[in-house]
Every structure is written in structure tokens, then in C-alpha cells.
Amino acid sequence: MSVISGSIKLSTRGDADIQDITREVARLVLNSDLTDGIVTLFCPSATSALTTIEYESGCLSDLRRLFDEVVDPNRNFDHNARWGDGNGHSHVRAALLGPSLTIPFIQETLTLGTWQQIIFIDFDNRSRRRELVVQLIGD
Amino acid sequence: MSVISGSIKLSTRGDADIQDITREVARLVLNSDLTDGIVTLFCPSATSALTTIEYESGCLSDLRRLFDEVVDPNRNFDHNARWGDGNGHSHVRAALLGPSLTIPFIQETLTLGTWQQIIFIDFDNRSRRRELVVQLIGD
Amino acid sequence: MSVISGSIKLSTRGDADIQDITREVARLVLNSDLTDGIVTLFCPSATSALTTIEYESGCLSDLRRLFDEVVDPNRNFDHNARWGDGNGHSHVRAALLGPSLTIPFIQETLTLGTWQQIIFIDFDNRSRRRELVVQLIGD
């Protein structure tokens, strides 16, 4: 058993920019000497989040619309009133979706479904450079 | 420390069918030779998800109603417009709730609360056969 | 590699009381003999949940408002009709946000962002005593 810590660097456009990170995660698993275990993905940020989805433009725009409806960026936010940075909606969206994701791998392969990709969503209101934490634990 | 990979097979009716998988997960923990550690549950699917709830019919129908309101299946979805498979709402719901759950176990026992059960929700719009990934890491 | 199980005791006011548990989690990591690994946090309760957020009063009230809107406590809940305990909204909110959170640590330090804190939210409709499970796996 061992622990291997890595990272994935991303440049995002913000405003619910959704990026498919499946290939990078799969590569980190393959490049490790581990066969079976879990990969923990973590966003070290309060305005971005992780989940899985079928990465095709219809699903992505449907997901963005959900967040536009449930957490409308054009309404008032107490965070914006206090700090004036205009990303109150980003904080609430990120807290709702969550910063971490744990995925088992077996025989060096992520246990994703055929139509299931790992996505990073940057909810911030401007372009950002991000560095996700990717940590493997296994045999 | 070791890694043990298992699975749980389910037949679901789709349409937010909710199944209590607590007993199966507890059995996989008991049948392993591990005493303390974590169990990672993962849905290898883009239209199903996992969480915990008190498994009684009131809570289950309240949770289903939340998803009917927040992600109404009868509205238009870009996924459906592109692919014609009618399960656009299933994808958005599954992405929102999330595909993974990690639960510690101590002395061979899941650390669930008294009224807390592990549930699998199949958001797809038809009956499906599913196989959840259950991976234990511990001592 | 080893597994270390701990806990964090909390007294909450209920009604979406949000508590910052970052310092307690960081201390459990520092007090262990582990350098790199993951910490799994788990709520053994069906009416509370975990996520991360920037812990300042604006973000916290924005998050509480989201839950008041999406899961309004003043409407009817089937759980309340059956059991009469008035916390139907608490169950739905906790199931939506989720009971577990997994965070990597590297060189004895949680990989949180600068403005990112770990929060416990008690959605129950009364004050409660809680004991969160905190389990570390690592080297």
C-alpha cells in the first residue's frame, strides 16, 4: 500500500466553464505503480467543484442552466454586499456541488461507466488558473 | 492494509427508484478480513447517484419531489434535443447528487447513524440493471 | 500505511447552524503520525451534512437562503405527515448535500485553498449534540 500525490493544472474561463479531466486522471493512475485503490480528487478552492456527467454539449448546457436557475447570478448576494467581488453565486454553487470526488480503480483502470466523464466546474466569475489535488491510495 | 474490490448488483425500475443498499454494504465489510477503514461506493453510470437518508416512505417521496421540482422532467433538455433519448433530466440530477460516497467503518461496523441508510437512486427513465463498485481500504 | 479513527464533538443550534471545523480536522492530522493521505469526514446522522465554503457571514447566509428556497421548511412534507416531528426539510436537505467529505493531506497539511473552510451544517429543527467521524488513512 502506498500514497501518491499528484495534481492537474487547468486554465479556465470561469462562469461555469466545465472541463473534462478524465484523461488526466486516468493517466495519473496508469503512471503510478498501483493496481487497485482509490483516487481522491480535490478542488483547493471555494468557487469550483467536481462531479461526473456524460460530457456532451447537451448535458453540459442542461447542467449550467440548472445552476443559473437555482443560484441566479443576477440576484443579490450578501457575500457581494460585504466584499464587492461579484462572485457570491460562485461560492454557493461550489458549496452545493462539493469539492471532492473519490473513484475506485481496479487493474489500473478507473471504474467509470462508458458514458461517464469526470468534470471540473469553475463557478468563479472570471478566468482562473487552477491546480487540482489528485491523490492515489492503493496497492 | 489492503484493498478489497466488490460490487452490488441491482435491478431498478428507473424514474428515481430509490433502493436501500445498507445491508449489502455492511455484509461486504463483515465478510472482508478488515477491521477499520473506509468503504468507497461508486456508481459507474451517468444517470444514477448515491447518498444517505432515513429510509422511510415519507422521506423518500419528499426527496423525489425535490428532484421533480428542481429538475422537472417535462421541460426541454438540450440533451434530449440532440440525442432523443428522453433522459436529459436524469443526467442533470445524477451530476447534482454525485456518483460517490465514502463511509468509514470501525470494528467491522459502518459508522452510520441509527436512522441513516445508504441509498442508490436510479434517475434514468427506464428500468436498468446496475452494478455498483464497492471498494474497501483498511486494516 | 495505517488507519486512525477519531471524532469531533459539536453542540449545534439546529436550523441550518453552520460550524467551521477546519481547525479541529487539521489538529487531528497534525496529532497523528501520518504525513500524507486522506481524511474522511462522515456525519452519522440523516439531518446534517458537510461541505466546504469561505467561512464569512455573507457566504453563510447566501447558502442558508439557497436551502430555504429550494427546500422551504414551511411547506408540507410527507415525512412530517407520517411522523409528526417537523424536520422533513432537514432530511431532504441533508440527503442533497451529502454526509461525507474526503480531503487529501500532504506533509501533514490539509490541501484546502486559502479561503476554503470545512463546514458542518446541522439541518435539524432543534439543537443537537453531534459527534462526527474523522478517519485518516495514510503513511
Number of strands of chain A: 8
Please trace the helix and strand order of chain A, writing H or E for each element: EEHEEHHHEEEE
* Shape summary of chain A: elongated
The quaternary organization reads as: homotrimer
Give a description of the structure.
By secondary structure, chain A is α+β, with helices and mostly antiparallel strands. Helix content of chain A is 29%, strand content 38%. The first copy, chain A, is built from four helices and eight strands, in the order ββαββαααββββ. Chain A has a five-stranded antiparallel sheet, covered by helices on one side. The longest helix of chain A is centred in the middle third of the chain and has 14 residues, at 57-70. The first copy, chain A, is elongated, with a radius of gyration of 16 Å. The termini of chain A are close together. Chains in contact: A-B, A-C, B-C. Chain A binds chain B through residues 1, 36-38, 51-54, 56-59, 61-63, 66, 70, 96-98, 101-104, 106, 111-113, 115-117, 119, 137-139, and chain B through 1-3, 5, 40, 42-46, 70-71, 77-83, 88, 91-92, 94-96, 98-100, 102, 133, 135, 137.
